[in-house]
UniProtKB/TrEMBL annotation:
<dbReference type="Pfam" id="PF13537">
    <property type="entry name" value="GATase_7"/>
</dbReference>
<keyword id="KW-0436">Ligase</keyword>
<dbReference type="GO" id="GO:0004066">
    <property type="term" value="F:asparagine synthase (glutamine-hydrolyzing) activity"/>
</dbReference>
<dbReference type="InterPro" id="IPR033738">
    <property type="entry name" value="AsnB_N"/>
</dbReference>
<dbReference type="InterPro" id="IPR006426">
    <property type="entry name" value="Asn_synth_AEB"/>
</dbReference>
<dbReference type="InterPro" id="IPR017932">
    <property type="entry name" value="GATase_2_dom"/>
</dbReference>
<protein>
    <recommendedName>
        <fullName>Asparagine synthetase [glutamine-hydrolyzing]</fullName>
        <ecNumber>6.3.5.4</ecNumber>
    </recommendedName>
</protein>
<dbReference type="InterPro" id="IPR050795">
    <property type="entry name" value="Asn_Synthetase"/>
</dbReference>
<dbReference type="GO" id="GO:0005829">
    <property type="term" value="C:cytosol"/>
</dbReference>
<feature type="site" description="Important for beta-aspartyl-AMP intermediate formation">
    <location>
        <position position="343"/>
    </location>
</feature>
<feature type="binding site">
    <location>
        <position position="98"/>
    </location>
    <ligand>
        <name>L-glutamine</name>
    </ligand>
</feature>
<keyword id="KW-0067">ATP-binding</keyword>
<dbReference type="GO" id="GO:0006529">
    <property type="term" value="P:asparagine biosynthetic process"/>
</dbReference>
<feature type="binding site">
    <location>
        <position position="267"/>
    </location>
    <ligand>
        <name>ATP</name>
    </ligand>
</feature>
<feature type="binding site">
    <location>
        <begin position="341"/>
        <end position="342"/>
    </location>
    <ligand>
        <name>ATP</name>
    </ligand>
</feature>
<dbReference type="GO" id="GO:0006950">
    <property type="term" value="P:response to stress"/>
</dbReference>
<keyword id="KW-0028">Amino-acid biosynthesis</keyword>
């Protein structure tokens, strides 16, 4: 992922202002170590830190139209850029960059071109002919973006909060799927899919339609001119991504440049569930597998860096970001610049273990809609910033616009978890890739129980974090928590510990307002906590807080020293789905 920074209408075109913009842009240099660019037009500044993935030789930014009257700084990947170029036959392109189409599309279609883009993106476009500008962010917020306002009337845009928090009177997250125009001064939602209204869909489940939609989503993300790989935890989502990539890589342009041997990467504590499962999947798929180990102390030592880069105090995001942050550094050291990952599946298909308690299909569907809409504050934030901290790009095929439309149009009755019928979480996704004749994955991997990333890297990781926080946060501090942190008051010592670090880096009130809050169990929304009265006394984002569902469940109030390794009573065991092949 690249880093973008723009200061617009600041009423200051001095050299000192230019130097300040350059200084702030360098705070984003970790996102784009390959090139730095800055374009100034009067009192508007567009800066860019580039991570070169497509056309690394000539795609430096900012980008322009033919006469340089339209200027664009963009972070993203436009997967349909070749198709879009064919619609722009009267235009001349300066580079082979996939993002080069944006300025030209604006000339042809005005602000309405954004929905034509198939990809992930955050961009600022300046039209120097009238000094107007537009800012846009991709559909679900895979790329991070913030907007701020200065006392001088300026508008600031940055890929990360640290690019503007010291210079703006107020700032906030730029909403996903929205466009901001200087001509109106308001946000407009450009992304309006059918599911957004949360009306209950009724399309019958067709496993082949779902399978083909996801395969297409993965294949289009193989667009790269640099070495890449896949993140492989051994769970369902990352394993499917790896399997499809391995299956179709050989016929792509990428394979001609870098070979058809796929590289896979996994991180975990010694003997963690993910390491074992990923090793097995990698051997099955024949990938060149790279396994990275870390200790609880390694993770604890990195917490401050993680919070600085991820820019959150949300407990589950920090828990999961830390191993991903450590792994990304190792991956980048191998010369890899892009990875494909499995975020988004649990939100779309109700894969979190608390979905076992969804009371009906309407509630199930509403919760998936709420989860997708909030992804930019959680898993997208983690995947984007944990990798970008080391100049690595993460692509997420489950959040492909077309795939989401297909998956969210399915009657949610098909997504419901029904243990008596052998339907575990994400059953329709598992069923779509259960092919006896040409198997994608070993059967037991295809039907492995959901493990949240922060759990799968090793159960002692979360337990170790809690123990560390207990040493640094006293009971007296907790009693005064509501006075010290009246907004999103931390309710655990772990949350208090993270909040202290966050406030040191980002002390502004605007900063603390960018982080979501509310009760959660196993990553649920606050609304879904109401599904089971027992959860109200066991609030923890770990999947193991789903009592009676997770095979290694725990009670959040149980002391660490007394925590059971297995809950052996009243646990519904996974029932294997009948082995019925899908005919392609």
């Amino acid at each position: 992922m690249c880093g973008i920074l723009a200061v617009l209408g600041c009423s200051d075109d001095s050299q000192a202002k230019r130097v300040r913009v350059l200084e702030l842009s360098r705070r984003l240099k970790h996102r784009g170590p390959d090139w730095s660019g800055l374009h100034q037009h009067g009192d508007c500044y567009l800066a860019h830190q580039r991570l070169a993935i497509v056309d690394p030789a000539s795609g430096d930014q900012p980008l322009f139209n033919e006469d340089k009257s339209v200027v664009v700084t963009v972070n993203g990947e436009i997967y349909n850029h070749e198709e879009l170029r064919k619609k722009l036959v009267n235009h001349k392109f300066r580079t082979g960059s996939d993002c080069d189409v944006i300025a030209h599309l604006y000339e042809e279609y005005g602000e309405d071109f954004v929905d034509m883009l198939d990809g992930i993106f955050s961009f600022v476009l300046l039209d120097t002919r009238d000094n107007s500008y537009i800012v846009a962010r991709d559909a679900t917020g895979v790329t991070s973006l913030y907007i701020g306002w200065g006392l001088d009337g300026s508008v600031w845009i940055s890929s990360e909060m640290k690019g503007l928090n010291d210079d703006c009177e107020h700032f906030e997250c730029f909403p996903p799927g929205h466009l901001y125009s200087s001509k109106t001064g308001v946000f407009r939602r450009w992304y309006n899919p059918p599911w957004f209204s949360e009306a209950i869909p009724s399309v019958p489940y067709d496993p082949l339609v779902l399978r083909r939609a996801f395969e297409n989503a993965v294949i289009k993300r193989l667009m790269t001119d640099v070495p890449f790989g896949v993140l492989l935890s051994g769970g369902l989502d990352s394993s499917l991504v790896a399997s499809i990539t391995a299956r179709y890589l050989a016929g792509t342009k990428t394979a001609k440049h870098w070979g058809s041997q796929l590289h896979s990467f996994c991180v975990g504590l010694e003997n963690s569930p993910d390491l074992k499962a990923a090793r097995e999947v990698a051997e099955y798929l024949g990938t060149v597998h790279h396994e990275f180990h870390f200790t609880v102390q390694d993770g604890i030592d990195a917490i401050e860096d993680v919070i600085y880069h991820i820019e959150t105090y949300d407990v589950t995001t920090i828990r999961a970001s830390t191993p991903m942050f450590l792994m990304s550094r190792k991956i980048k050291s191998l010369g890899v610049k892009m990875v494909i990952s499995g975020e988004g599946s649990d939100e779309i298909f109700g894969g979190y273990l608390y979905f076992h308690k969804a009371p009906n299909k309407d509630e199930f569907h509403h919760e998936t809609c709420r989860k997708i809409k909030a992804l930019h504050q959680y898993d997208c934030l983690r995947a984007n910033k944990a990798t970008s901290a080391w100049g690595l790009e993460a692509r997420v095929p489950f959040l492909d616009k077309q795939f989401i439309n297909v998956a969210m149009s399915i009657d949610p009755e098909s997504k419901m978890i029904k243990k008596d019928e052998g339907r575990i979480e994400k059953w329709i996704l598992r069923r779509a890739f259960d092919d006896e004749e040409h198997p994608y994955l070993p059967k037991h991997i295809l039907y492995r129980q959901k493990e949240q990333f922060s759990d799968g890297v090793g159960y002692s990781w979360i337990d170790g974090l809690k123990a560390h926080a207990d040493q640094h946060v006293t009971n007296k501090m907790m009693r005064n928590a509501s006075n010290i942190f009246p907004h999103n008051t931390p309710t655990t010592k772990e949350a208090y510990y993270y909040r202290m670090i966050f406030e040191r880096f980002f002390p502004q009130n605007s900063a603390r307002l960018t982080v979501p809050g509310g009760a959660t169990v196993a990553c649920s929304t606050a609304k879904a906590v109401e599904w089971d009265s027992a959860w109200k006394n066991n609030l923890d984002p770990s999947g193991r807080a789903a009592l009676g569902v997770h095979l290694s469940a725990y009670n959040a109030e149980t002391p660490l020293s007394n925590m059971p390794s297995k809950v052996i009573d009243n646990i519904p065991r996974m029932i294997e789905v009948p082995r019925v092949a899908i005919q392609s």
